[in-house]
């Protein structure tokens, strides 16, 4: 994963979630002010989504705090899956915000209202978008480094907010240029339909994590490469064989279990040493991997129930 710079070391999931809460409060103030001075339902929808950002970031901070707890008697595999609840919650909030935006926008088709002080409204909206965009970029980088689903969920929610603001600003510019007031609620509805897609994607990804999905293809490829090298080095004459390999991911952690078949005549010490060598090679290839390797004689096949 490489050495972290002082800046990247500071950007832990908990700190970034705390920053996200602060940015959400600031953008709520800016977007509410933009709606207040213009009367735009598009800007109102933008402000409503920022309220969702605040709720999502608060819940996300709670979940990354839970996920960081060490394993205990009740949770021997750790608490990492808590991050999937955060991501799923963010997705549900995004979908709820989209429904609220559509609900607020529909009446404006039948009762269009003039918009005031668009310049101030556009400026405030663009400032809040810049804050959200910068934070989202930092959180996406950190989510890849920490393999944090909670950070990724909040970052993608913030990016959705940015695109919402871009759409709203575009709609207001068109209203100012054409005088067609119905464009304001139309843009709000189109933005809402777009963010439903992002919300659905987050809910789907979190559900897959909660159901013990296999590790990512690139991680599996690294595991396969280690096993291939190991078999080539130690498996001459059929002395080493692997089977029953299973993987799963839980938040930031990756788990692997497999059977390592060795000659029945080997001593326990020799077999254990080879297993330790394989475990170390796997961890070197996939940092943080939890490998469980069961030793079996070459002529023994485990029952299917195992």
Describe what is shown at a glance.
By secondary structure, this protein is mainly alpha-helical. The protein is built from 9 helices and 3 strands, in the order H-H-H-H-H-H-H-H-E-E-H-E.
What does this structure look like?
The chain has 306 residues and is mainly alpha-helical. 69% of the residues lie in helices and 9% in strands. The chain folds into two domains: 205 residues, Alpha-lytic protease prodomain-like, CATH 1.20.1510; 81 residues, Cation efflux protein, cytoplasmic domain (Alpha-Beta Plaits), CATH 3.30.70.1350. Helix 2 runs antiparallel to helix 5, helix 3 packs antiparallel against helix 6 and helix 5 runs antiparallel to helix 6.
Low-confidence stretches: none
Note the overall shape.
elongated
Sheet/helix structural class: mainly alpha
Span between termini: 34 Å
Report the count of strand segments. Answer: 3
- CA-atom Rg in angstroms: 26 Å
The helix content is: 55-70%
- Whole-number mean pLDDT: 78
Quote the CATH topology of the largest domain: Alpha-lytic protease prodomain-like
How much of the residues is beta strand, in percent?
A: 5-15%
For the sheet with most strands, the description reads:
3 strands, mixed
Strand arrangement in the largest pleated sheet: 1-2-3
Q: Count structural domains.
A: 2
User: Architecture of the largest domain, according to CATH?
Assistant: Up-down Bundle
CATH homologous superfamily designation of the largest domain: Cation efflux protein transmembrane domain
SSE series: HHHHHHHHEEHE
CATH class designation of the largest domain: Mainly Alpha
């Amino acid at each position: 994963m490489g050495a972290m710079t002082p800046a990247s070391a500071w950007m832990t999931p908990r700190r970034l979630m705390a920053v996200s809460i602060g940015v959400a409060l600031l953008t709520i103030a800016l977007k509410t002010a933009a709606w207040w001075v213009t009367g735009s339902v598009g800007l109102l929808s933008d402000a409503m989504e920022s309220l969702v950002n605040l709720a999502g970031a608060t819940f996300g901070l709670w979940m990354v705090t839970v996920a960081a707890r060490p394993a205990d008697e009740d949770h021997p595999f750790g608490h990492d899956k808590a991050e999937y609840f955060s991501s799923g919650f963010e997705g549900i909030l995004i979908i709820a915000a989209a429904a609220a935006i559509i609900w607020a926008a529909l009446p404006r088709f039948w009762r269009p209202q003039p918009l005031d002080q668009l310049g101030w409204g556009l400026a405030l909206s663009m400032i809040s978008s810049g804050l959200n965009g910068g934070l989202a970029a930092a959180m996406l980088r950190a989510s890849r480094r920490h393999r944090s689903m909670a950070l990724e969920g909040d970052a993608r929610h913030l990016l959705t907010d940015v695109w919402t603001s871009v759409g709203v600003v575009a709609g207001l510019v068109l209203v100012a240029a054409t005088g067609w007031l119905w464009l304001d609620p139309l843009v709000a509805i189109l933005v809402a339909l777009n963010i439903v897609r992002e919300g659905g994607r987050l809910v789907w990804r979190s559900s897959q994590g909660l159901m013990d999905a296999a590790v990512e293809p690139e991680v599996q490829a690294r595991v396969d490469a280690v096993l291939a090298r190991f078999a080539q080095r130690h498996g001459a004459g059929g002395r080493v064989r692997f089977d029953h390999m299973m993987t799963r991911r839980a938040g930031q952690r990756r788990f692997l279990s497999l059977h390592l078949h060795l000659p029945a005549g080997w001593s326990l010490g020799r077999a254990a040493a080879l297993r330790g060598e394989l475990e170390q090679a796997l961890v070197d290839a996939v940092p943080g991997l939890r490998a469980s390797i069961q030793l079996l004689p070459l002529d023994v096949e485990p029952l299917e129930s195992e």
